[in-house]
Write a structure and sequence with these properties.
Helix content is about 30%, strand content about 15%. By secondary structure, it is an alpha/beta fold. It has a single domain, classed as 3-Layer(aba) Sandwich (Hypothetical Protein Ychn, Chain: A), CATH 3.40.1260.
Length: about 140
């Protein structure tokens, strides 16, 4: 079972020396790079005033869970952290991805900003330093 990081403000402020343990990240079989990192930056895609924005995001995440290749990690930032919180319509798809070895991470600063830290329902915590390290390791980074 994957470890969950302690929910504390201290983690959000940790500097890069903490990030030497990348044991939860699954690298490509042929290199030290991640094949695919997905950064999710909002809880919808496209025009936020339209109901379809949320539906498109749900369909896309469910599509990622449906067929290989799976991303190595999915990082949720800004309003996207609502997708990893209790009552999110994507919890089952995200848990399915997690069970397939995909690292699901939510930015703790964003969770704190939206007062969702105690409502995180899937995955673990990350901070900006960890995200920067993942981006550097990624062969392909996709931003939604």
């Amino acid at each position: 079972m994957k470890k969950k990081y302690t929910r504390s403000t201290n983690f959000c402020q940790m500097q890069p020396e903490f990030l030497t343990d990348m044991s939860e990240v699954q690298f490509s079989k042929h290199s030290s790079k991640l094949n695919m990192l997905v950064l999710v930056t909002d809880d919808g895609i496209g025009d936020k005033s339209s109901k379809i924005a949320g539906n498109l995001m749900q369909q896309l995440i469910k599509g990622l869970a449906a067929k290989e290749p799976f991303p190595n990690a999915i990082v949720f930032l800004n309003r996207a952290v609502f997708l990893t919180a209790q009552s999110s319509p994507l919890l089952s798809a995200l848990r399915e991805l997690e069970s397939k070895g995909v690292l699901i991470l939510s930015n703790c600063d964003c969770l704190e900003h939206y007062q969702l830290m105690e409502k995180l329902a899937v995955g673990g915590l990350t901070n900006s330093y960890h995200i920067a390290e993942l981006i550097k390791l990624a062969k392909n980074t996709i931003t939604l």
